[in-house]
Protein: Ammonium transporter AmtB-like domain-containing protein
Organism: Coilia grayii
Amino acid sequence: MMKQGTSLRVRLPVLVFVSEVVFLALYAIFVTYDDNANAKFQNNLTNPMDNSLYRDYPYFADVQVMIFIGFGCLLAFLRFYGFSGMVFNFLTATYAIQWAILVQGYFQFYSDGKIHLGVINLLNAEFACAVVLISFGAVLGKVSPVQLLVMALLEIPVFSVTEWAVLKYLKINDAGGSILIHLFACYFGLGVTFVLYRPSLNEGHHKEVTSYQSDILSVMGTLFLWVFWPSFNSALTFKGDDQHRAILHTFIGLSASTLTAFALSTIFNKRGKITMADVQNVTLAGGVTVGASVDMMISPAAAYALGVIGCTACMLGYKYLTPFLARRLRIQDQCGIHNLHGLTGLISCLAGICAILLASEETYGPSMYQIFAHRAPMEGDPKLLELQQLIPGLKPGLGRTAEVQAMYQVAAIFSTIAAAALGGVVTGFIMKLPFLAPFSDDFCFDDELFFDMPSDFDSLTAGLVKEMSNDENTKV
């Protein structure tokens, strides 16, 4: 029986309907079509196949699959929390994308008093949504859906402002989002879970268990993420050879991390068997580790090495760092996002900095000044005119050296982590407010608190009670 303090009957409808009224008003006032979706700009000379839809929609569709199916299934690994893992992911993602279209649109697509909406705008909103869903992994099973929507409501603006400031003032290279997606999402989520610390969960929870079916469903989510990760890393890179390299590097990194994960899983398992949690999470590490340098000329061998290194760091993090964070630093990272997105994100950033320092015209040719746009000569430099003859449309840069650009990358790492952690802590305190339906430790990882459950759920619960009783008898 749901207690009045956790009932969603008033809280969730009020938050949703108020948000929808506000969103509808903002859409009506500020959102219009971009040139590729506006009928006024079409005429008998317009080739429909030149529309950006055909360039951007495949990536949009792939990222949709990752967000709604990949993340959803991955988060359904707990035996008694499958409904919540998938459905709260669905709810939060839908809410976050609607909100991100407005917030991201303001910073990236706002002109003449309007947000110009197109598929690329939706794609950017999906990346902002992915940030929220990664952070969600840190508090899985410990927050109500109302708290999750509030987290999305607050995290999207903090992320968008941080992204805007870093790109505008630090002007970095971050094609795969290692800094602005993975690191931000990770440390925001850790900030939230630090505030929502539950001491009793360090000793484990009787419903914090998996099952044969839930593990299979979670691996399905991993496979969806694995298959579509090349689209995630390459969606916003320059079309052509840059995007081509991004897809190649992501696939190679993922392949290397997958093989390494299976090997390490058997090494760390006391009985020399494969652990499903490693398959569900550690196999994906290579997709993150290649992110910062994914469009650069790092070589396939380097992408392979990054996959192996990222996987190893991720595995060690799950085995040793996650328990340490929970017991010593009050950070209960439920899904280990610090391992899959934090540690691997930092490795990716270091690899990106190395790639920037090693980049030269000998390796890249004139296109170096497209990939590293801020290293292009400044306006008025004779070399800029020479390069523009080789690459028509090349824009003036800042004339940065490799060392200067590397320093800006380092500054971006620290500023992003600081902004994310501070935003997460503030958001955590807001999520603790009583009217957002927080609940006691006893109800963690339990679908029954917020769902009408099927009749066979009682048999699952009874089976758990019997298992616990047998365990106690065995100990006696």
About this structure: The chain has one domain: 7-37+50-358+401-437. The mean pLDDT is 93.
